[in-house]
């Protein structure tokens, strides 16, 4: 905290008083000169006035220069205080001259008037310069000493008496200026201490408020004697309220806790109130003003108890952790996706620490390490990287961290537990905080060991013998800056989009479709401009099929680029297959539960804007288990495939048909009518259509078979329900059909929360 220098304050006070004291001093001098004009030689009076005006001008000049220095931040207090005292001495000598001149009048009345005037002037100087005793004495001392001696020395009349009084008054002023200055300094010291204490209190309060508000936490304070609970504004805003809207009672909080969490939360709270735990801490859901629930991390502690240990006051803070919960859920789903398969997921700390925070389960299949080994605090991700690759990989990570890219790709070797190295293609996504600083690194590693071995073998073969270049399965093209074909080589003529005589000497736009030509043009210009290798991808129609190509462009010289073109159709298909495995049922090729959930959420969002209804039809095949047990799973799978085909044919193309597993199917209808009854009628019509379609005989490998479904229907309108609740209602309605004889459909009526049964015709 900044402190105030007493000397700086004294100097500023002294100079600020000059603007008033200087003109008053001149006026007093003129008045004395006028009174003594006929009593003292006029030449002496004029000489004295000249000296006094010069001293006044000197002090006025000091005032101007001080204020300029103060504005420029150059007010060095010690130097300016010395200058002020010198100016005060000059003024004191000028007034001493006046005292000596005016005291020669010889008129007792004038001498008494002069003594009275000088005493008044001295009192004014003492008041104006009370903060600096020396400056006051430099003016008062010469003036009164000269006057007193001038009156005492003649030794006749009353003049010696007046001179003695003046000298005694000088002594009195000398003593008083010291006491006044000491009092000023003491007051200043006390004021400085008070300011310092107020500043500390203010800073502590600001820190406390800033820490609480900046942390995003809401305070609650429970007075158990009165039963009142104070909820801070931040606490209320977490739930979409303002503080005045909430009653200061404990039930205000309890009524908003999710019913599934209330018993657990109260159990932990009561355990702390009984003194069994040092803190109360819990994570639970609370109802927001808009109807949804937010996740809360709540911590509190009893801060006051009675003599017998009964709690009487408790304070706590709450924090909204909904975002963290969503991230945890997403991360869990992602980790489940990468539990098996050829793609490993790594999450590791910053480049500097290199600690592995997470490794997917399939890393043991790819690298031979167990998850626990890699996630040990003593393990560093850089230890896995090949010594020849580690500097490049870490430097690229550092460069990308500074460039704030959202994703970058690398290819490098990682050490297998057996000691050998395997090549991996790493698609890296940095996770950054709000300031853009990289906190964690997420890498999706594709094992490309075989591909790398092939590239290395081909490169070695090309260096040894030009003839072996024919075995390379890539297309090599050479372009100039205009995108004109200069040369080519390929060991696989199937990669050629056109015969060499049709493209050599021509530009890309004359040979390839516009999109592919533009992609290669852009890559060529980028390589020539930056000098770094560039990968581009494009697609071409070759024969009856679409082929995807990756061109690796490198700079040969200032005007030429070499392109190594590879058919990556198989890789694209593999990626699409991975995506299909994640979102589609392998038997029926229908969307699985995960994709269905996403489609339902999307339909709810669309319905929220349009106001239209949607419906969920939950289907279960009657007696399917008996078919499986009697004729085997192969026949059952054949039936499921035919059911899937009939369901797709029975609904609109925009509707979703999904398989949850076993013999359970779900049909989601979108864009139904605005009115609930009309939308329900549409859903029933589709349900009847499905009953008719699935009730027709099936040909199961030569065996005729009849199968009927049980259908549960639940309407939804916007986001009034969460997805799990909607599925539960449709499932509950379907089981009502099972209970009442199967081969029919039930509707869960959302407005009355009861089930309505719509019977259908009996089927065999």
From TrEMBL:
Listed A to Z, the keywords are: Membrane, Transmembrane, Transmembrane helix
Transmembrane helix keyword on record: yes
SMART domains noted in UniProt: GGDEF, PAC, PAS
Checking Pfam families in the record gives:
GGDEF (PF00990), PAS_3 (PF08447), PAS_4 (PF08448)
Transmembrane regions: 12-37, 43-66, 87-106, 112-130, 137-155
Please give the superkingdom of this protein's source: Bacteria
Q: Where is the GGDEF domain?
A: 612-750
Which cofactors are required for activity?
Answer: Mg(2+)
**PAS domain location:** 330-404, 461-531
- The PAC domain covers 280-333, 408-460
For the keyword Transmembrane, the answer is yes
* A GO MF term: catalytic activity
Name the chain's protein: PAS domain S-box-containing protein/diguanylate cyclase (GGDEF) domain-containing protein
From what organism does this protein derive? Answer: Ectothiorhodospira marina
